[in-house]
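Blinded run. Sample ID left blank on purpose so nobody reads anything into the name before looking at the predicted structure. Input follows.
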Amino acid sequence: MNTEPSRTSPLRVTTWIVIALAGLLTTALCIKMLPEWRHNPDLSHGLFAPVMFLLLLHEGRRRGPERYLADSISLRIVRAFSLVGSLAFVCFAGLYAAAIEWGHGLVDFALSLSLCGLLFATLLWLSTTRVRALPLNWSTFIAVTLWPLCASIPPGTYSKLTLQLQYFVTHVVLWALHVLGISASTSGNIIQLAHTSVGVEEACSGVRSLLSCIVAGLFFSATLVRRPWARVLLIALAPLLALGMNIIRSLTLTLLANANVDITGTIHDITGFAVLGVTALILGGLALCLEAPSPAAPAPAPAIPPVTSSPPWGLLAGYATICTLIAFFILKTQPATQQSGRAPNLEAMIPASPAGWDIVQTDDLYRFVSILETDHLIQRTYVRDRQKLGEEDPLQVTVYIAYWSPGQAPVSLVASHTPDACWPAGGWTQHAPKNIPVVFKTSGHTLPLPEVRSFSQASYYQNVWYWHLYDGRSVTQNNPFSPLTMMNLVLKYGFRPPGEQLFVRISSNREWSEIKDDPLLTGILARLRPYGL
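Blinded prediction complete.
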């Protein structure tokens, strides 16, 4: 008696629904990451990810092996863990997008991990003996797990990897130059030659070729190689080949520069693309050499008696939950269509022409409007000539204020743009602050404790005091580089908090004790008192 499911059985219908949902979410992630693939050279191989995904699935179905698994309890547990992991990464991505922005690299990486877990759970269902829609083999496994390699590397990991590769390539090239009898020295990632210098920048570190080569190695291992040991060897050789080819490129460019050839522009770009192309060709040729000339035809899979199975309700519930979570986070992170409340007059808080002070205008302040999500910004630098009193440099005080109306921006976004995060990017070096008062007072009024920082640039020194105020209360300083800390702010204050926010920063080349009672500062702080100071 034929017990196979009919074309219209619930099992067949739900299987196609699962496939359609998997295709929909995969397409959505590709659209989400397309701008990064197009504009980030390190991720340009991601443009080929959808094609590789489909080719690998086709290869898994066409060439096998046709490995199907019984829908046992252990398989269901693995599938459940994969779904739970996918849900966890969606929550992480949504909360971090609410804390910072959807375009952050860590959000893309978390979403790619979520898709990877979801597709793996789907594969474990499609490869069961009842469904038999897609076998579980190396090709299909690589297809569903390839996506994290096409997403942005988390910024901290990327910086460390790039820095290590820069120094490694620099020292290997220096060693090769000495072997060739060329006098050279290094300063960081700069190679000093007799008549010029060559910098091993981030683009020359080899991250681009490393990621692309690993992806190419995995793809060729799943399409051109069948023996397990050959696959392991090909994948292990891929990063080594990428580093070797990048060292050859860097050495070639250095030798050209030493011969007074201009290596900027066209030559630099052509050699970069040539390295990627040659590396891929070498990997493909190596894969063909590792494959047996005439592999024996695989034995036909033994007939497996039909088993009863119910539609994948757990998998469908996982898809529904993930789609709901994504929709929830997208709706909750939409910027406010209109600002509620009336913004204060920031210019009235900071005097434009105080007696005894000269004003230094800040001309480029509004270029940060899109990052800060507010155009209520003001900054003024006041300078008083103290040289007449025997001081080496004039007294300088800078006051910066930014305002967000209720619902305009999450607290975590404001907290992520502190001097700790922004000043080092502008070339400032952070130091441990000195002489921090236990109580901050000005003209007898006690202020909320500010965050205190010290920075220097060349011989210019700045003491910095700042407050982040939410609804009239000071927000405890949080580590802007910690994803968990930023997400905790979202959970504590909400996605679009109902309170107004104010960020006040005062910086000076003097200690707080020298400026706290100056009429300029006491007047500004008095005007800010209704907002929490």
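Unblinding after everyone has recorded impressions. The two ends are 83 Å apart (CA to CA).
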